Amino acid sequence: MPESTLDIQIKTLPHQPGVYQYFDADDRLIYVGKAKDIKKRVSSYFNKHHDYGKTRVLVKNIASVKHIVVETENDALLLENNLIKKYKPKYNVLLKDDKSYPWICIKKERFPRVFPTRRVIKDGSEYFGPYTSMKTVKTLLGLIKGLYQLRTCNYDLSEAKIEAGKYKVCLEYHLGNCKGACEGYESEEEYSANITAIREILKGNFKDSLQQFRIQMRQHAEAMQFEDAQKIKEKLEVLENYQAKSTIVNPKINNVDVFSIISDETYAYVNFLQLSHGSIIRSHTLELKKKLQETDLQLLELSITEIRQRFNSNSKEIYVPFKVNLGDELKITIPKLGEKKSILDLSIRNAKYYRMDKLKQVKIVDPDRHANRIMAQMKADLRLSEEPRHIECFDNSNIQGTNPVAACVVFKNGKPSKKEYRNFNIKTVDGPDDFASMEEVVYRRYKRLVEEEQPLPQLIIIDGGKGQLSSALKSLDVLGLRNEIAIIGIAKRLEELFYPDDPIPLYLDKKSETLKIIQQLRNEAHRFGIEHHRNRRSKGALTTELENIPGVGEQTIVDLMKQFKTVKRIANAKLDELEAVVGVSRANKVYNYYHKE
């Protein structure tokens, strides 16, 4: 059989770093990837079985492969990132490229203006940013305006026009916000010194400005110019206050990018902090929609490239939670303790809060998406063949062997369905036998569902270890449902999850949503079962105590319990108190029963 064009293309791929592109039968680009070894990576798609459905569909749709060889892995990352943003292939993670971030511009002109803008014009002007919010820009510009008097007019302040007296000072001059450069009241050297200081502040370096203000304040004080010294002192306090709020680490940590990632089954969130002179000058969280179960490593590498491009970062060192391959030009630091670890933890916390905010918004705007995400996560975590939309959890309750009962609670789409909760009084078991009780209730529950043709759950959770799980399995075997419903047991001590015919338990991350839902099911079953057990014990105590009194019927007992609440209070009640509730005749019978002596 002759080889297909695709097979020939794969065989002729080079063992070089670069980018590979998959095209479908209509010659549409459907996936872009990067690799250290293009041939090895592409071949892996066709040489093994893929468990994840979308990957199988991708491979099925590949009609041709193209590749681009590059010098380094870093070049491959940049090229992959640019191709994904440009073509938005169907099976690549979704990278949203927002072009409307605000910048702060220092205009290239004589007596430069400093202003916010969303348009970057290549005219030689300096642009600082982009910033992730206009609020940050306004805060910085407010700080600058409070420290330095800059012009806001758009006049051409050439030396000739100023000498010709073409302009007159405006209201800003009279308010003290401008020194009147338009009429020559301020020299270009003095103005340029302020711009140099502003440039350093925008870079996050406050040291030079603070030092300069202290020198000026001292000079004014020595010259007995106390009002001017006070004005400088106020500016110094403003700058120190701003620095105190923005500085969270050692000022020696300069020009560093920090990245962290939090992900679930469907989305990943990469947080970016940019540090300069000990200050966080930028923070941003990038949301990525997964398409092919990409690993955190793949997503973080792609995101670092994208974010550094987007924010024009030239930092030579980055802090990350695990090793990434970004070429030899960058210094990669994986902090383990100290201030660097605190900075990384802060980034992780920012990513977590961003994810929590997104999930809260989704719950309000699109509750189905939240449920779908949880179900997909549970399916993957618990190794199920289908999403557990309908889960039932069983728990036994007996105290000192009396009144054995069991509870079954039902969750639909990760939420309690209380109208479907069921209690069971154990009928066929004498004494405290949890294993036999579990076998009975599971049999009764699913025999009834089958007989009434009710929908069966996708997952059964047994509160207990291997013993209870084995007992429940016996009932499913008898009913012929063993392969119809997934079943697991959860042991209380270490939150171990047991599977049928598997001696090794599964341990979930203590913070995982899957474990939290299982714990919620278990706790709810326990609460519901205990509540029913207490009711039975109370009813039993009532029956054995009050119904033994000759001539006292059910209604009398109900009236007495409503008034006195407990049997003990009835026994200790005075005759006239009893008479006020149930009359003379029945009160005497109750009173005499407890006071025979």
UniProtKB/TrEMBL annotation:
<dbReference type="InterPro" id="IPR050066">
    <property type="entry name" value="UvrABC_protein_C"/>
</dbReference>
<dbReference type="GO" id="GO:0003677">
    <property type="term" value="F:DNA binding"/>
</dbReference>
<dbReference type="GO" id="GO:0006289">
    <property type="term" value="P:nucleotide-excision repair"/>
</dbReference>
<protein>
    <recommendedName>
        <fullName>UvrABC system protein C</fullName>
    </recommendedName>
</protein>
<dbReference type="InterPro" id="IPR004791">
    <property type="entry name" value="UvrC"/>
</dbReference>
<comment type="function">
    <text>The UvrABC repair system catalyzes the recognition and processing of DNA lesions. UvrC both incises the 5' and 3' sides of the lesion. The N-terminal half is responsible for the 3' incision and the C-terminal half is responsible for the 5' incision.</text>
</comment>
<dbReference type="InterPro" id="IPR038476">
    <property type="entry name" value="UvrC_RNase_H_dom_sf"/>
</dbReference>
<feature type="domain" description="UvrC family homology region profile">
    <location>
        <begin position="262"/>
        <end position="476"/>
    </location>
</feature>
<keyword id="KW-0234">DNA repair</keyword>
<dbReference type="Pfam" id="PF08459">
    <property type="entry name" value="UvrC_RNaseH_dom"/>
</dbReference>
<keyword id="KW-0228">DNA excision</keyword>
<dbReference type="GO" id="GO:0009381">
    <property type="term" value="F:excinuclease ABC activity"/>
</dbReference>
<feature type="domain" description="GIY-YIG">
    <location>
        <begin position="15"/>
        <end position="93"/>
    </location>
</feature>
<dbReference type="Pfam" id="PF14520">
    <property type="entry name" value="HHH_5"/>
</dbReference>
<dbReference type="InterPro" id="IPR047296">
    <property type="entry name" value="GIY-YIG_UvrC_Cho"/>
</dbReference>
<dbReference type="InterPro" id="IPR001162">
    <property type="entry name" value="UvrC_RNase_H_dom"/>
</dbReference>
<comment type="subunit">
    <text>Interacts with UvrB in an incision complex.</text>
</comment>
<dbReference type="GO" id="GO:0009432">
    <property type="term" value="P:SOS response"/>
</dbReference>
<keyword id="KW-0742">SOS response</keyword>
<dbReference type="Pfam" id="PF22920">
    <property type="entry name" value="UvrC_RNaseH"/>
</dbReference>
<dbReference type="InterPro" id="IPR010994">
    <property type="entry name" value="RuvA_2-like"/>
</dbReference>
<dbReference type="InterPro" id="IPR035901">
    <property type="entry name" value="GIY-YIG_endonuc_sf"/>
</dbReference>
<keyword id="KW-0227">DNA damage</keyword>
<dbReference type="InterPro" id="IPR000305">
    <property type="entry name" value="GIY-YIG_endonuc"/>
</dbReference>
<keyword id="KW-0267">Excision nuclease</keyword>
<dbReference type="GO" id="GO:0009380">
    <property type="term" value="C:excinuclease repair complex"/>
</dbReference>
<dbReference type="GO" id="GO:0005737">
    <property type="term" value="C:cytoplasm"/>
</dbReference>
<dbReference type="InterPro" id="IPR036876">
    <property type="entry name" value="UVR_dom_sf"/>
</dbReference>
<keyword id="KW-0963">Cytoplasm</keyword>
<dbReference type="Pfam" id="PF01541">
    <property type="entry name" value="GIY-YIG"/>
</dbReference>
<comment type="similarity">
    <text>Belongs to the UvrC family.</text>
</comment>
